[in-house]
Automatic annotation (TrEMBL):
The keyword Ligase does not apply. This is Delta-lactam-biosynthetic de-N-acetylase. It comes from the Bacteria. SUPFAM superfamilies: Glycoside hydrolase/deacetylase. The gene is pdaA.
Amino acid sequence: MRGVLQLLVAVLLCSSLLIGHGAADASGGKPYHFGFKKSKNGQLPSIAEEGFMDIVKKHGAIFLGDTSDKELYLTFDNGYENGFTAPILDILKSKGVPAAFFITGHYVKDKPELVKRMVAEGHIVGNHSWSHPDMTTLPAERVQSELDRVKLAVKELTGQQEMHYLRPPRGIFSEQTLAVSRQVGYISVFWSIAYKDWDTKAQKGAKYAYDSVMAQLHPGAVMLLHSVSKDNAEALAQIIDDARSKGYTFKSLDQMKVKQYR
């Protein structure tokens, strides 16, 4: 009898350890801050030295489109509104350029008319999480809740039934967060063109924004711009015109047929 009790205690202890390990795994894994070697002098950018290329590729996340084709994918992060999204939408409409806007729960609640306009004008509205947390610190069910709340709010507001694209908040991710988000139907979208544009107190003018983007231009580029930037709004039309003059075509993420990693 004593032996049976000891065996039962051992089984229960083992089970509790396994349960605890599973819970930790949901929010565990090495966290990464997305970074990349920028394109310079026409050379392609790279994530080969960042330590996460294999897991980005494994989970089908987006870094580059087809680098043999002069295609560009324009994406905006919309954590909050600073008065520039409407002018950005005006430019996109006048130029016939599709874009993806990654929005937070705050943005849905604060600027519903702009969200409705994004959808009505044919842009992708993607998920940037409800509260913009570091998702690598959250258990799997909380990650899913962060994503579900945005998707449901956009559906109720605009009638958009599906939401397929996610930009990890703060660019922080782990293999677990990529796996969980993919499991619930999302493709994580990173970027291959970016510059420090999010600091509204350190805007440097439209020319700086233009030069920063055009210096990194390359085939298959996923461009990250923050909609809070006055510089971006003022430079956008010229960026579009001059990229096109160089033979580039702006495409929607839904049109991406090739994902590349290097």
